[in-house]
Amino acid sequence: MQEAVIHISNLYKKYKDADDFSVDNLSLSIEKGEIFGLLGPNGAGKTTLISMLCGLVKPTSGTFSITGLTYDKSAMAIKKTIGVVPQEYALYPTLTARENLRYFGSMYGLGGKTLREKVDTSLEHLGLLKFADKQVETFSGGMKRRVNLIAGILHNPKVLFLDEPTVGVDVQSKNVIIDYLKELNANGTTIIYTSHHLTEAQDFCTHIAIIDRGKIYAQGTLETLISETPKAHNLEDVFISLTGKELRDDV
Amino acid sequence: MMYKFWMSVYKEILLLRRDFGGLVILFVMPLVLIVTITLIQDSTFKSVTETKIPILLVDNDKGEIAKNVKENLIQSGTFELLTEIANKPITETSAKEAVFKGEYQLAIVIPERISSDLQLKINQNVENILSSFGMQDSVTMPKQQELSPKEVRLYFDPATQLTFKNGVKNAIDKMISQIENKSIYATFQDQLGETDEPLFEQENFISFKEIVPKVDDKEIVPNSVQHNVPAWTLFAIFFVVVPLSINVVKEKSQGTLVRLITNPVPYFIVILGKTATYLLICMIQFWLMVAVGVYFFPYLGLPVLEVEGTLLLMSIVAFFSGLAAIGFGILLGTIAKTQEQSAPFGATSVVILAAVGGVWVPVFAMPKVMQYVSHISPMNWGLNAFYDVLLRNGTILEILPEIILLLLFFLITIAIATVYDQKKRAV
User: Fold this and answer.
1) H or E stretch including A176?
2) Whole-number Å distance between alpha carbons of B98 and B107
3) Of A70, A209, B92, B204, whose CB count within 10 A is highest?
4) Residue B196 in domain
5) Domain check: are B243 and B381 in the same one?
6) Distance from CA of A162 to the nearest CA of B (A)
7) How many domains does chain B contain in total?
8) Which domains does chain A have, with CATH numbers?
9) Is B198 within a domain?
10) Do A92 and B264 touch (CB under 8 A)?
């Protein structure tokens, strides 16, 4: 049996003034070495769940642990363990890529030659080394996404949270990002990933959970999900079958 | 921890270096402000002491009083008397028209027969007094003529400031009283005196002297520079609220705050990084403005800012004022959702705090309610501390209460910002 890196038990989150729970009695275990895809329509509760796991939002009730640690007792230890790649480009636009990465790396306690080398090898790996000293505001969306990713993995996290890491990027950038993530996973990083790109998720994830209205509707490997869903041939069929076809516009 | 702090400071400095507009607001605008305001205030001060203001005089009297008024006005050195406009003698109507159009600030109209009627009135009064003492033969007294009261008319440009108006009115009132007194004394002398020796001492018996504080037996005479540099330096220091609150709001909107919160760095290190950077800016602003006051003002014909023996204490006041401004900026940036909220609110609130704090109008001149309100403005605490050091020869003990208030303001605003941020994330 694999070791659970993340263990969530009866987790609830209801925002102030909201009618419904964004996360509603959710329980889940994510095992070490998985690439765990958290998929769901808009407003399903994916970002809220990830925000709670990253310590950005406090749960209404319920518990969870990351590598056996909880935020109540070991917030700093968890933060050293996890890496976060937010949906928005969480970078300083007027700083260069190198300046951004050195700053965020230093917040993990990295410094000196180690940090310089890590920044340069990561930039090189993602095809950005020659742009290292350009201000991020001059970068394309794909380039910003790649820098955004590097900023979350400089400290070699055990668990990496990715909130739609390939949204709005071209195919080339997307492939580079996905390949790099696979490499990280192969080196032992557990990845928790949200996306709307079902084809990408189908190819990338080792485990998938379909989340809607704050609840997990199904979870397992791709093969399990397809086999357990009548008339399903791919992930999209499973997704539509579980979440329906109606639009999820909300304000 | 120190490494993370210094890296935060370095990041803030990099961000500022790349923000040209922000740098202009932080360093150039305060210097322009302090030079402009001091020049204007100094020239306003000079306008009643050195520079001559052209005023219109309509002399319908042609007598002793008109002559005296003219002489006194010229001797005051404040006014340039004009009796003609475009080579035409001024009448009351043309003077009124020119002043109300804003071409001149003031016209004085001396009525007809004011000298002769005043003399006649005084003569009658003196004769009545002497008669009541039995010193005048009532049979020989001439029949008393009915005299209508005279008025010297003043026309002011409606845009003229009230303080200038009151100053001029008081000066003219005093001038006329002196002329009346002299005439009364002269008439008594004339009626009583059989000698040419003056019977009455006409010099002022009571005079006043301003006693100013002394340092090393040297009088500290306040001038516009000693008043303006601290006041406007404080105003500039507080303007750090605008770029700082924008910096905090940007951190939220760009998502970098999210990253920082998920990083293993206490939030107070991020706040301290901003505090240290902007405090350095406040101190550089302060020393630049002091340097301008000391070295540049004399080239503009302004008095030198005297900082001998007070620079350290002034720096301490600037340091704690900077802290208070930074606390306010961080609080504002934490509460505001957008730059459109933080920038105008920041600028307006600083202007309000300055107005309430006595930067523009002295606190003693404010209505009673506003005098109480002024005590809650950190700019008032800073200004008082600066004045204590610069004008009242105060020591560290005298400024300690204000310093403590400024520090408390910083701590409280930072505490509110931190609690607010945590509450917001707990929703």
Assistant:
1) helix A171-186
2) 9
3) A209
4) no
5) yes
6) 12
7) 2
8) 4-243 (3.40.50.300)
9) no
10) no
The pLDDT of A232-250, averaged and rounded, is 71
Q: Is the ipTM of this complex over 0.90?
A: no
Neighbours of B154 (CB within 10 A): 15
pLDDT-above-70 percentage for chain B: 86
pLDDT (tens digit per residue) in B14-68: 998 888 877 887 888 888 888 888 787 776 655 545 567 788 888 888 887 788 8
**In a shared domain, residues B38 and B60:** no
B259, B274, B424: best mutation site toward chain A, by most A Cβ within 10 Å?
A: B259
For B97-128, the DSSP string reads: HHHHTTS-SEEEEEPTTHHHHHHHHHHHHHHH
Of B167, B185, B203, the position where a domain reaches its end is B185
Residue B356, in any domain of the structure: yes
Per-residue pLDDT band at A106 (split at 50, 70, 90): very high
Same domain, B114 and B228: no
pLDDT of B46 = 58
Q: What size, in residues, is chain A?
A: 251
Of the candidates B257, B253, B413, the one whose C-alpha atom is nearest the C-alpha of residue A51 is B257
What value does the mean pLDDT take over residues A226-230? Answer: 78
Same domain, B309 and B344: yes
Among A13, A15, A76, A106, which would you mutate to test the B interface (most chain B Cβ atoms within 10 Å of its Cβ)? A106
In chain B, which residues have their Cβ closer than 8 Å to the Cβ of A151?
259
Please indicate if any CB of chain A lies within 8 Å of the CB of B260: yes
Contact A107 B264 (CB under 8 A): yes
CA distance A135 to chain B (A): 10
Q: Which residue of B has its CA nearest to A75?
A: B264
Output the pLDDT for position B407. Answer: 95
**B266 lies in the same domain as B311:** yes
Contact B2/A at CB under 8 A: no
How many angstroms separate the CA atoms of B220 and B213, rounded? 6
Q: Identify the pLDDT of residue B202.
A: 64
Q: Are residues B394 and B421 in the same domain?
A: yes
DSSP 8-state class, residue A168? T
